[in-house]
Write a structure and sequence with these properties.
Shape: globular
Number of helices: 6
CATH superfamily: Glutaredoxin
Number of domains: 1
CATH architecture: 3-Layer(aba) Sandwich
Helix content: 25-40%
Number of strands: 9
CATH topology: Glutaredoxin
Largest sheet: 5 strands, mixed
Structural class: alpha/beta
Distance between the termini: 20 Å
Strand order of the largest sheet: 5-4-3-8-9
CATH class: Alpha Beta
Strand content: 25-35%
Radius of gyration: 16 Å
């Protein structure tokens, strides 16, 4: 298992506004942030999932971390990050659709962070391509304190979820 977060740069999209007549948010710019920008001098919870707008991720995992943000903060967590192998446009719209205010969604569109965490899984069989395995981690100043990795999918459980749930992570803080 790796001990530190990989050194990567994320391409965030900031300042886009939804046109009043609908359509794609426009007018913003790309802002680049490194893992040092996000992890240095902070104790954070990171969770990653196969994709934005997918059922388990949208129904339980992201909303669960959002709803329990204050409990994490009370236990010494400075930030909660949700990482997915999706671009910033998708991640921003997903956060907007779910009314996420406290969890920072992080686009890992090229999968560099996911690869560096050794969490890449090939979901081509269901049309996803290379994505992230579902996991959560407590990270202190870039050092991984604890990993919560879901078991591999199987015929009887195609989308394992529980180990990386906010409730389970909270129990270990």
């Amino acid at each position: 298992m790796i001990k530190t977060v990989p050194d990567v740069t994320f391409a965030f999209r900031e300042g886009d506004e939804v046109p009043t007549d609908g359509g794609c948010p426009i007018g913003g710019k790309f802002v680049f942030k490194t893992t040092a920008d996000l992890f240095d001098e902070k104790r954070v919870v990171v969770f990653s999932l196969p994709g934005a707008f997918t059922p388990t991720c949208s129904t339980y995992q992201l909303p669960g971390f959002e709803e329990q943000f204050a409990l994490f903060h009370a236990k010494g967590i400075d930030a909660i990050y949700c990482i997915s192998v999706n671009d910033s446009f998708v991640m921003n719209e997903w956060a907007r659709a779910l009314n996420i205010k406290n969890v920072c969604v992080i686009p890992d569109g090229a999968g560099a962070f996911t690869d560096g965490m050794n969490m890449t899984v090939d979901l081509s069989a269901i049309g996803f391509g290379k994505r992230s395995r579902r996991y959560a981690a407590v990270i202190n100043n870039g050092l991984i304190e604890h990993m919560f990795e879901e078991p591999e999918a199987s015929a009887t459980d195609p989308d394992p979820y529980g180990v990386s749930s906010p409730e389970n992570v909270l129990k270990h803080l």
